[in-house]
Amino acid sequence: MSKDRNKALKRYAGLFKALSNPNRLRIFERLLSCCRPGTVTRLEPGDQTYVGDLARDLDIGPSTVSHHLKELRRAGLIKTERRGQRIECYLDPQAIRDLAGFFNLTPGVHALEPVRPAGRRPRKK
User: What is the tally of structural domains in the chain?
Assistant: First the structure.
Protein backbone atom coordinates (compact mmCIF):
# COMPACT_ATOMS: atom_id res chain seq x y z
CA MET A 1 0.00 0.00 0.00
CA SER A 2 1.36 3.42 -0.91
CA LYS A 3 2.25 6.07 1.64
CA ASP A 4 -0.38 8.39 0.17
CA ARG A 5 -3.08 5.72 0.50
CA ASN A 6 -2.00 5.03 4.11
CA LYS A 7 -2.17 8.73 4.87
CA ALA A 8 -5.65 8.96 3.34
CA LEU A 9 -6.86 5.95 5.32
CA LYS A 10 -5.55 7.48 8.56
CA ARG A 11 -7.42 10.69 7.71
CA TYR A 12 -10.66 8.76 7.11
CA ALA A 13 -10.15 6.79 10.35
CA GLY A 14 -9.77 10.04 12.30
CA LEU A 15 -12.91 11.52 10.76
CA PHE A 16 -14.97 8.40 11.43
CA LYS A 17 -13.58 8.04 14.95
CA ALA A 18 -14.72 11.57 15.79
CA LEU A 19 -18.15 10.86 14.33
CA SER A 20 -18.46 7.50 16.12
CA ASN A 21 -19.75 9.18 19.27
CA PRO A 22 -23.53 9.68 19.01
CA ASN A 23 -23.39 13.14 20.61
CA ARG A 24 -20.66 14.34 18.25
CA LEU A 25 -22.57 12.92 15.31
CA ARG A 26 -25.69 14.79 16.42
CA ILE A 27 -23.74 18.05 16.83
CA PHE A 28 -22.10 17.55 13.43
CA GLU A 29 -25.49 16.85 11.87
CA ARG A 30 -26.91 20.01 13.47
CA LEU A 31 -24.06 22.14 12.13
CA LEU A 32 -24.45 20.49 8.74
CA SER A 33 -28.17 21.25 8.66
CA CYS A 34 -27.91 24.86 9.82
CA CYS A 35 -25.28 26.14 7.42
CA ARG A 36 -23.25 25.27 4.37
CA PRO A 37 -19.67 24.14 5.04
CA GLY A 38 -17.48 27.18 5.56
CA THR A 39 -20.41 29.31 6.78
CA VAL A 40 -19.90 30.68 10.26
CA THR A 41 -22.13 29.80 13.21
CA ARG A 42 -21.48 31.86 16.32
CA LEU A 43 -21.05 30.21 19.72
CA GLU A 44 -20.85 32.34 22.83
CA PRO A 45 -19.24 30.38 25.69
CA GLY A 46 -19.84 33.08 28.33
CA ASP A 47 -23.48 33.50 27.33
CA GLN A 48 -24.97 30.03 27.08
CA THR A 49 -27.63 31.01 24.54
CA TYR A 50 -26.44 29.02 21.53
CA VAL A 51 -24.53 26.35 23.43
CA GLY A 52 -27.38 26.16 25.93
CA ASP A 53 -29.96 25.82 23.17
CA LEU A 54 -27.86 23.18 21.46
CA ALA A 55 -27.37 21.35 24.75
CA ARG A 56 -31.09 21.53 25.57
CA ASP A 57 -32.17 20.44 22.09
CA LEU A 58 -29.74 17.51 22.12
CA ASP A 59 -30.33 16.79 25.82
CA ILE A 60 -26.65 17.08 26.79
CA GLY A 61 -24.89 19.54 29.10
CA PRO A 62 -23.17 22.72 27.82
CA SER A 63 -19.74 21.55 29.03
CA THR A 64 -20.27 18.25 27.21
CA VAL A 65 -21.20 20.16 24.04
CA SER A 66 -17.97 22.17 24.39
CA HIS A 67 -15.96 18.96 24.83
CA HIS A 68 -17.49 17.39 21.73
CA LEU A 69 -16.92 20.55 19.68
CA LYS A 70 -13.25 20.36 20.71
CA GLU A 71 -13.05 16.73 19.55
CA LEU A 72 -14.70 17.57 16.23
CA ARG A 73 -12.19 20.41 15.79
CA ARG A 74 -9.22 18.13 16.60
CA ALA A 75 -10.43 15.68 13.94
CA GLY A 76 -10.58 18.50 11.41
CA LEU A 77 -14.34 18.31 10.90
CA ILE A 78 -15.02 21.81 12.17
CA LYS A 79 -13.00 24.98 12.57
CA THR A 80 -13.26 27.55 15.29
CA GLU A 81 -11.96 31.10 15.46
CA ARG A 82 -12.00 33.40 18.47
CA ARG A 83 -13.31 36.89 17.77
CA GLY A 84 -13.16 38.77 21.06
CA GLN A 85 -15.47 36.97 23.46
CA ARG A 86 -17.14 35.00 20.68
CA ILE A 87 -16.09 31.74 19.13
CA GLU A 88 -17.03 31.25 15.51
CA CYS A 89 -17.61 27.63 14.61
CA TYR A 90 -18.16 26.17 11.14
CA LEU A 91 -17.81 22.94 9.20
CA ASP A 92 -14.55 22.48 7.34
CA PRO A 93 -15.47 22.20 3.63
CA GLN A 94 -12.45 19.96 2.96
CA ALA A 95 -13.58 17.46 5.60
CA ILE A 96 -17.01 17.27 3.95
CA ARG A 97 -15.35 16.67 0.58
CA ASP A 98 -13.10 14.02 2.15
CA LEU A 99 -16.08 12.17 3.63
CA ALA A 100 -17.99 12.36 0.36
CA GLY A 101 -14.88 11.21 -1.51
CA PHE A 102 -14.56 8.15 0.71
CA PHE A 103 -18.03 6.97 -0.20
CA ASN A 104 -17.64 7.88 -3.87
CA LEU A 105 -14.44 5.82 -4.11
CA THR A 106 -15.71 2.81 -2.16
CA PRO A 107 -16.60 0.00 -4.59
CA GLY A 108 -20.13 -1.30 -4.32
CA VAL A 109 -21.56 1.81 -2.67
CA HIS A 110 -24.19 3.15 -5.04
CA ALA A 111 -26.79 4.66 -2.76
CA LEU A 112 -26.85 4.69 0.98
CA GLU A 113 -30.15 3.90 2.65
CA PRO A 114 -31.07 5.40 6.02
CA VAL A 115 -29.79 3.34 8.92
CA ARG A 116 -32.41 1.79 11.21
CA PRO A 117 -31.65 1.73 14.93
CA ALA A 118 -30.17 -1.59 16.03
CA GLY A 119 -32.70 -4.19 17.07
CA ARG A 120 -35.58 -2.75 15.06
CA ARG A 121 -37.12 -4.75 12.31
CA PRO A 122 -38.80 -3.26 9.26
CA ARG A 123 -42.58 -3.18 9.51
CA LYS A 124 -44.50 -5.75 7.56
CA LYS A 125 -46.83 -4.35 4.95
Answer: 1
CATH of the domain at 80: 1.10.10.10
Domain region containing 35 = 3-104
Is residue 112 in some structural domain? Answer: no
CB–CB of 46/40 below 8 Å? no
In whole angstroms, what is the distance from residue 96 CA to residue 98 CA?
Answer: 5
Residues 58-107 have pLDDT tens digits of 889 888 988 999 999 999 998 877 777 667 778 888 888 888 888 886 66
Q: 100 and 119 in contact (C-beta within 8 Å)?
A: no
In a domain, residue 113? The reply is: no
The values of phi and psi at residue 46, to 5°, are: -75, -35
d(CA 50, CA 87): 11
Identify the DSSP state of 35: S
What's the DSSP call for residue 123?
A: P
Instruction: Name the pTM for this structure.
Output: 0.71
